[in-house]
Design goal:
The structure holds two protein chains of two kinds.
Chain A lengths: L2 H23 L2 H17 L10 H26 L6 H9 L6 H20 L2 H11 L5 H8 L3 H20 L5
Chain B lengths: L2 H13 L7 H35 L13 H7 L3 H7 L5 E9 L2 E12 L8 H4 L2 E11 L18 E7 L15 E7 L2 E9 L9 E7 L8 E3 L6 E3 L7 E5 L9 H12 L1 H8 L1 H4 L9 E2 L5 E2 L1 E2 L5 E5 L2 E5 L1 H4 L8 E8 L3 E9 L5 E9 L3
Antiparallel strand pairs in B: 1-2, 2-3, 3-6, 4-7, 5-6, 7-10, 8-9, 11-18, 12-18, 13-14, 14-15, 16-17, 17-18
Helix pairs in contact in B: 3-4
The chains are: A mainly alpha, B alpha+beta.
């Protein structure tokens, strides 16, 4: 794969990979690092990237591998310089929905914040497929290929993650 | 809508992302990929030419940094196009002088000064729009690569780059008191640092040094100050790698009056913080009129338990920042410990800025008789 292809990869999949890195690493500084390392690592392994063979899935799987290998460093950095949730992004995404009243917007905001916090605390086995499905918008089949686990296992983990998060919401006084 | 659809919809809203990587970040990736590809053949040529070149390499410490990035490339690599352009202009001075100390070789690559030279925002620029930018590289002497920033061993040891002014005590006038900041990257096993601070050109006729060394502080363990001559030298007893460059500034750009006024402000930090910073006003009134010991101002370190550690003049303190600062609380000095004798009280205070950086200091207050 030559540089033109790497440029295309950044253009085509940069946003999806970055969003995934941001969820996984939890703050912008770590996300920037993880995102950059992902593409540099992908370049080293460029013979494994094929346009017809799901490059987004490959990039996300590289990001997961790097994050697992370096999670102690990211955790340490976060302890030193924690950064908050990106509320602006959350507000924008909510405002773009069809929610009609300010009260509903407030409740939705609270639920989204609750879900994000609860998702962050899930075990990696549940958290990573959850972010791959909802943040990187990968199919069950692509997640299974990227994580090298059966499709049934992906479905089961997503089900468990949703169940956990629903329980969190049901314990919410606003529910 | 059933329960599954409801939670599915909510998860989509909560976990989807509208964030995009910055253009600078994407450019940096593309640059690094292209750079790594173009560096490979260069390395091969270097290997072939090594025997012929060895005599030149041995000839002095100021040998040109021919394999290093230029200041312009370093700025580009960090995504700062405006600074890259500044390093390409006539005002920039390219130095390429190397000093080896301990296990490291430090190379002063270049320097430039002026207004609006960087894409990155720095609040200090509102007060002092004239800024100086210095590019330094740090390599291991044995040629082994310094770990990447993503590696756990990166920043061990950490390095400090600071301008020092001849005639001024280095522990009072340095990168910390001159509104400094630094950006770092590691390319091909070499650390590149861009250090910025208030412009040093006003001191051009006095003599300005650039200190580079392992560690995080400028104190009498790292440098020595001659009270009579004003000269600054490296402390020969310091076992850590360090180097001191003399900066080749144009004496015509010196501004004696401006420099004196600037030093007056830097050397009298207490009145400044009382009048310009709301931070001190927020502390307990009992400690609002303390006299800060400038040498005591340090960024805290962290122990294995995540506690912030501060040490000055034999007083050690470990404190939980969660206990000290509420969520999101910044810009306030917090008084933690008080030590007193018959004449005065010594207090230790901590300050957290908006980037989460925590600084400790020791201050004294005369006791009322």
């Amino acid at each position: 794969m030559d540089n033109i292809d790497i440029d295309s990869l950044v253009t085509l999949y940069g946003k999806a990979v970055y969003g995934f890195c941001l969820r996984l690493a939890k703050d912008k500084h770590n996300a920037d690092d993880l995102y950059q390392e992902t593409f540099l690592k992908a370049m080293e392994m460029c013979n494994k990237i094929d346009k017809s063979n799901n490059p987004k899935g490959f990039l996300i799987s590289v990001a997961v591998g790097l994050w697992k290998n370096n999670r102690r460093k990211y955790a340490r950095r976060q302890r030193i310089a924690p950064e908050g949730e990106l509320n602006e992004e959350m507000v924008n995404s909510i405002m773009s929905t069809n929610t009609s009243t300010p009260e509903e917007v407030v409740i939705l905001r609270e639920h989204c914040a609750l879900i994000r916090n609860a998702a962050d605390k899930l075990d990696d086995k549940l958290r990573i497929p959850l972010y791959m499905y909802y943040t990187a918008e990968m199919s069950i089949e692509d997640i299974a290929l990227a994580l090298r686990i059966p499709k049934g296992t992906v479905k089961s983990r997503l089900h468990k993650a949703r169940k956990n998060l629903r329980n969190v919401l049901e314990g919410n006084p606003y529910e | 809508m059933n329960k599954y659809e409801e939670i599915d919809q909510l998860l989509k809203q909560a976990l989807s992302s509208t964030d995009e990587p910055s253009e600078a970040l994407n450019q940096e990736i593309k640059y690094r990929i292209k750079e790594s590809k173009t560096m490979k053949p260069v390395r091969k040529r270097i290997t072939v030419a090594l025997v012929a070149a060895v005599i030149f390499i041995m000839s002095g410490s100021a040998f040109a940094a021919w394999k290093l990035l230029t200041p312009k490339q370093v700025a580009e690599n960090l995504g700062d196009k405006t600074l890259a352009k500044a390093f390409d202009s006539e005002n920039a001075v390219h130095i390429n002088k190397s000093i080896t100390s301990g296990d490291y070789t430090f190379t002063l690559l270049g320097i430039t000064s002026g207004k609006n030279l960087s894409d990155f925002k720095n609040s200090a620029r509102d007060i002092q729009p004239d800024r100086t930018y210095v590019v330094v590289s740090i390599e291991r002497k044995d040629g082994s690569p310094i770990p990447k920033m993503s590696d756990e061993n990166y920043n061990e040891p950490s390095f400090l780059v600071s301008p020092l002014i001849k005639g001024q005590k280095p522990w009072l006038v340095n990168i910390f008191t001159m509104n400094g900041g630094a950006y770092q990257s590691v390319v091909d096993g070499v650390i590149y640092t861009i250090t910025e601070c208030d412009s040093i050109e006003m001191f051009a006729d006095r003599g300005v040094y650039l200190y580079v060394g392992a560690g995080g502080f400028i104190n009498n363990e790292t440098v020595s100050y001659n009270e009579e001559t004003g000269e600054i030298t490296l402390n020969p007893n310091n076992k850590e790698a360090s180097a001191l460059f003399e900066l080749p500034l144009d004496a015509k750009k010196a501004d004696h009056e401006k420099a004196e006024q600037y030093l007056k402000e830097v050397l009298n930090p207490v009145p400044k913080s009382r009048t310009s910073s709301e931070a001190l006003m927020n502390t307990d009134n009992d400690f609002a009129d303390v006299t800060v010991i400038p040498e005591s101002i340090k960024e805290v370190t962290y122990n294995n338990n995540g506690l912030a550690c501060y040490e000055y003049n034999g007083i050690k303190m470990e404190v939980s920042l969660d206990f000290l600062f509420k969520d999101g609380e910044t810009g306030t000095w917090k008084t933690v410990g008080v030590d007193e004798d018959d004449m005065e009280q010594a207090v230790i205070q901590f300050f957290k800025d908006e980037n989460g950086v925590v600084i400790g200091r020791t201050a004294k207050k005369a006791k009322k008789q």
